[in-house]
Design goal:
single chain, 302 residues, alpha/beta, 10 helices, 13 strands, 30% helix, 26% strand
């Protein structure tokens, strides 16, 4: 065999099963994240996204299957030392200052990121001496995100990383995360902000009922859902052939169809208004809804 050996994957879940009080959260889930990838896990609430992440970072153990982080058991200290984590929810001692929290976390690493540079990257420099109890929800979230990078991680796992952030703060965070990936870092995230997924992820894995129902790059996920998006300024108020789903949009309507041609022909034949007509591909969020609805939404633990 010639050429360099393939690098060890950052994260592997192989046929993983996890149950909670008799409910199946993960049902034979298999997932692999390579070094330098930016991967997003998507799916409805209860699809298994947070459960999968908790297994990868060693907070839970699988009931069946194999989980590996940098080729090791995720509870191995050597593996976890290379990982940064922002959980879905976090809390800080209210009387500690922001820079004190950063220095406390930094003591766990041999070569931590300088506190000043880290806080500046996430727009927290002016808050360094503020007690965390006085931070807004968005400011606390930025601090939680910054802490994932204290130890100069090889990979970061982010569960809903920019919740509570306003548009400006979210874009600042995205810029930092893109720089991290561009420099060779590995990113695995979940998010309900589909614009965030499109901004950060290069590969999308869609979960439903604890299983993978789709896995590909963002444009391919949209294409796989196979839906056209037909926007009208006025709701025609009739059943149209080929429409599989619809939703209101202001005073108008958005129609989803596998093939837009029969829909448009029926609109013209019925002399319905075509004001505001736009035809295009379903957005990522709409594609994910279509994919998980086809599989059947999972209702178990997250």
């Amino acid at each position: 065999m010639t050429g360099a050996a393939r690098a060890e994957p950052v994260a592997v879940l192989d046929a993983v099963v996890k149950r909670f009080r008799g409910e199946t959260a993960l049902d034979g889930l298999s997932l692999r994240v390579e070094q330098g990838e930016a991967v997003a896990l998507l799916g409805p609430n209860g699809a298994g996204k947070t459960t999968a992440l908790s297994l990868l970072v060693g907070l839970r153990r699988p009931d069946a299957g194999v989980v590996r982080l940098f080729g090791r058991d995720p509870r191995d200290r050597a593996a976890r030392a290379r990982l940064g984590l922002t959980p879905q929810a976090s809390g800080f001692p209210a009387t500690l200052r922001v820079d004190e929290i950063v220095r406390l976390v930094a003591r766990h690493f041999s070569d931590p990121e300088p506190a000043g540079a880290l806080l500046g990257r996430f727009g927290l420099g002016a808050l360094a001496r503020r007690q965390t109890g006085g931070l807004s929800g968005g400011e606390q979230r930025r601090l939680a995100l910054a802490l994932a990078f204290v130890g100069r991680p090889t990979a970061v796992v982010l569960d809903e990383p920019t919740g509570f952030l306003d548009v400006e703060a979210r874009r600042l965070a995205w810029a930092g995360l893109r720089d991290y990936v561009d420099a060779g870092g590995t990113l695995l995230l979940t998010s309900h902000h589909l614009d965030e997924v499109e901004a950060l992820a290069r590969r999308v894995v869609v979960l439903s009922a604890g299983r993978v129902v789709a896995e590909d790059h963002v444009p391919a996920i949209r294409a796989r859902a196979g839906l056209a998006r037909i926007t009208l300024a006025c709701d025609p108020g009739v059943v149209l052939p080929g429409v599989v789903r619809s939703e209101p949009s202001g005073s108008g309507i958005v129609l989803f169809a596998v093939d837009p041609a029969p829909v448009l022909q029926a609109l013209v034949a019925g002399q319905h208004s075509l004001a505001g007509l736009e035809v295009g591909r379903a957005r990522l969020e709409e594609a994910v809804i279509a994919l998980t609805a086809a599989d059947g939404d999972g209702g178990g633990p997250g």
